[in-house]
Design goal:
The protein is an alpha/beta fold. The protein contains 22 helices and 20 strands. The strands form four sheets. A nine-stranded mixed beta sheet has the order 1-8-15-14-9-13-12-11-10, sandwiched between helices. The chain has a six-stranded parallel beta sheet with strand order 4-3-5-6-2-7, sandwiched between helices. β14, α11 and β15 form a beta-alpha-beta unit. α3 crosses α4, α12 packs across α15 and α15 runs antiparallel to α16. The longest helix is centred in the C-terminal third of the chain and has 24 residues. The chain starts with 6 loop residues before the first strand and ends with a helix.
């Protein structure tokens, strides 16, 4: 397995994102507080940026100064409720502390039915201003509340907002929509990831436009840390059992979270307990398990050091382990966590340096959350690492579609994360040759279309990361990446199709404008800047885009659109997967490009044999003759069917 990151981003350790102002607010929190008078606020900010406290500042102001009588904070699961426990704010400069009456902290132990009743009572009671509950409690309570006006003068704060959906089957999404339309309630929504694993948007476009958006980027957060200097994403491709290849990916000198695959996935051995035992064997020799904490002490096979390992897979004794994890006070308290569905969203282990995840995660949100576990700032680390072990298709296996799709999802997710983690850029049309950028992040492009409507402007300013996530999750785009289609097909056909699907209200001109910005933004974020000096000592900046060096002052939209923005995804596959498997991947994709009937396959096979006899060459997919192209794809389909049949016969 190679050790070369697909993504490597470096930061400046400015300390800016963790410093506080005179009110005790970090940079992100102050940015949110500036919008405290807005009725609807949507906060997009990464893990560890301080969203919980940002909510506290806004909620307390609404209670004190804006006529709001009650605040409901909804979190996806009970364990995250501790983020909203009593918090001292006055001693850091704010005018009021955050205090929650234990009676209205519904994330504590207790029956779900009584909690629903408690929330309903809270809306009418005089003795409580703040209530904390789970999404489920809010959902069930709403279903029993007959009148949306009971939420008048109430602020509803929804943490981890990506759990909500505008889909009609989403009860919480439906509740939020009705409350917004039928009451005077204020809403503050927070998320570390606005990406969803499914295709359903979180809000309808009409509702989303009512929100004031506050975005704090991953780059701002990580660049403003004191200790963390770099972040990397790497992929390890393996065949066979992942436990046999784990020692090549696991660095036991790093504080590590190992997420094993779901038992329903192809990567799983179907025996999660055996997998944990094998992982322990890779780490070293088990010395003992602490009966009080449930923590294992394992002697490392690499350096003989005793490592403290937490097993969150086995149910027996897991509560003791979880309690121990809640009381960690320093980096020496723990070395490795092995988990299945836990230690992701809302889990805080700031000393974690490496996330080692086996199998692709089907939700970009889950990937963002896992990465968020290791991108906390801590004095014990200067680098954070996300390593994903992915099953490589076997070239002898005729059915490679699933494995190919997993690889493509993993690689495109990493490219999206690179976009998210890189510095912000602002694309603008170059109007004349001598025009110069007005801001450090401005990039001028000749021929770039200017947004013709406020709708396009809003998408470009606020929605590009989410649009690029939709593009990279699109099946046609992934197939195009694997087939290494040319730039024109990708940029003029596949990307605009995704834009049209995501924003059906846009005109053709608006679709073209949005597509241009999405493509240019993607290409330029991947571009490497190089500086040269001419004979007079003047500095010139060049961008390396794919295999081209372009002077920054000569950027042209036609040139940018001549580049496949996802070429790097194919390059990663070509680098890390052997040529025989790549041929199988290409054949498998080719086999699905045309939907041939059996009769058509028979006839095209005969035609192809005649073609070879006449020309001495096999039909080419690159031919300008449509019939020759069809023959080439028919032969690929037949080869694929033969491979599958051979596999079945064995």
């Amino acid at each position: 397995m190679q050790n070369k990151n697909v993504v490597e981003v470096n930061y400046h350790q400015t300390g800016k994102s963790t410093n506080t102002n005179e009110l005790g607010m970090r940079e992100m929190q102050a940015r949110v507080y500036q919008h405290r008078k807005s009725k609807y606020i949507l906060v997009k900010a990464p893990p560890a940026s301080g969203k919980s406290r940002a909510l506290m500042f806004v909620a307390l102001d609404k209670l004190a100064n804006q006529g709001i009588k009650k605040v409901i904070v909804a979190v996806p699961e009970r364990s995250i409720g501790s983020s909203f426990k009593n918090t001292d704010l006055v001693k850091y400069g704010f005018y009021e502390d955050w205090r929650v009456n234990p009676k209205y902290d519904l994330t504590l132990n207790g029956g779900s039915e009584s909690k629903v009743q408690r929330l309903k009572e809270f809306l009418k009671a005089d003795d409580g201003r703040i209530l904390v509950c789970t999404h489920a409690t809010l959902r069930f309570a709403y279903q029993e509340i007959a009148d949306d006006h009971q939420f008048d003068n109430v602020m509803i704060a929804i943490d981890e907002f990506h759990h909500v959906s505008s889909d009609e089957s989403s009860v919480l999404g439906d509740a939020l929509r009705n409350i917004m339309h039928n009451s005077s309630a204020h809403v503050l929504a927070m998320t570390g990831s606005y990406f969803r694993g499914d295709s359903a948007p979180i809000l309808t476009p009409e509702d989303e436009q009512q929100f004031d958006k506050v975005t704090y980027t991953y780059y701002e957060q990580l660049d403003g840390y004191k200790y963390l200097k770099s972040f990397g994403i790497d992929y390890k491709f393996y065949q066979g059992r992942y436990t046999d290849a784990l020692d090549q990916a696991l660095d036991t000198s790093k504080k590590t979270i190992i997420h094993i695959p779901s038992v329903n996935s192809s990567e799983s051995t179907k025996d999660k307990y055996d997998e944990v035992d094998r992982i322990f064997d890779v780490i070293g020799d088990v010395d003992h398990q602490d009966p009080e904490t449930g923590i294992y002490y394992i002697k490392s096979k690499h350096d003989g050091k005793f490592l403290k390992v937490a097993d969150l897979v086995n149910e027996d004794g897991r509560e003791k382990v979880q309690e121990y994890l809640r009381t960690l006070s320093g980096p020496d308290d723990l070395d490795i966590i092995v988990a299945l569905g836990m230690a992701k969203e809302g889990f805080d282990w700031p000393w974690a340096e490496q996330a080692l995840t086996i199998g692709y995660r089907h939700s970009l949100t889950e990937i963002v959350q896992i990465i968020g576990r290791v991108t906390r700032d801590s004095s014990n680390k200067t680098h954070a690492q996300f390593t994903n072990m992915i099953e490589q298709p076997d070239a002898k296996d005729g059915d490679v579609q699933y494995a190919v799709n997993q690889i493509l999802k993993a690689i495109t997710a990493s490219l999206l994360m690179e976009q998210v983690l890189a510095p912000e850029i602002h694309l603008k049309r170059r109007r004349h040759k001598d025009e110069r950028p007005t801001g450090d992040a401005d990039i001028l492009i000749r021929g770039l279309k200017e947004p013709s409507t406020k709708r396009v402007q809003s998408i470009i300013e606020n929605d590009l990361p989410d649009l690029k996530a939709a593009i990279l999750q699109d099946d046609s785009v992934k197939q195009g990446i694997a087939a290494n289609v040319d730039a024109e097909v990708m940029n003029k056909e596949l990307v605009p199709k995704v834009v049209m699907t995501r924003y059906p209200d846009l005109s053709n001109d608006e679709i073209e404008q949005v597509s241009q910005y999405a493509i240019a933004d993607t290409v330029l974020r991947h571009a490497k800047v190089e500086t040269t000096k001419d004979s007079n000592g003047n500095s010139n900046q060049f961008l390396r885009m794919a295999d081209k060096f372009i002077n920054v002052d000569q950027l042209d939209i036609n040139l940018i659109e001549s580049i496949n923005p996802f070429q790097r995804a194919y390059d990663v596959m070509s680098r890390d997967i052997d040529s025989e498997t790549l041929r199988v991947i290409e054949r498998s994709i080719d086999a699905h490009k045309y939907d041939f009937t059996d009769d058509e396959l028979v006839q095209l096979y005969k035609n192809a044999k005649l073609f070879v006899m006449k020309t001495g060459q096999r039909p080419s997919k690159e031919s300008n003759n449509e019939e020759e192209v069809r023959m080439a794809y028919a032969l690929a389909k037949i080869a694929d069917l033969r491979a599958r049949r051979g596999q079945t016969d064995e």
